Amino acid sequence: MTQEPQTQTKLDCSIIIPNLHSPVIDRTLQSILSQVTDRSYEIIVVGMDNLGWWKVPRGQIHQNAAPVGAAEARNIGIREAASDTLIFIDADCIALPGWIDTFFADFAEGWQVIGGGVKSPTDNFWLLVYNLSMFHEQLATQPPRGTSPTCQP
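The structure corresponding to this sequence follows.
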């Protein structure tokens, strides 16, 4: 019996995560996998994981032999992406509900590059102070602007 070749459906987006032994990569992945969306996507994790927390059921893992910087890891992810629409999130960030659909709504409005705002945890005072001092211009409460910060939502 001969099987018909399967036609591959084009993915709506590729989500790329640079990682270097992040202790919260499992939370990052879960925040993406729990998104309620009709968009099809893959997750590409690039880097190293000595904690064994990478479990990517809808995507791929690119385990590097040696550490690489976040920019190089993102470029590796770009080369391996199955979609032309790329969404980046760092391995220590949590995607809020509606994260994927928010990007596509912004793309539909004509934005070519989109950066997310920072929402800092408030249970750790020193972490809150650090995030406010570093990312005050990128807080989620700020209005959209024509330039894109490098931090993720």
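The longest strand covers residues 13-20.
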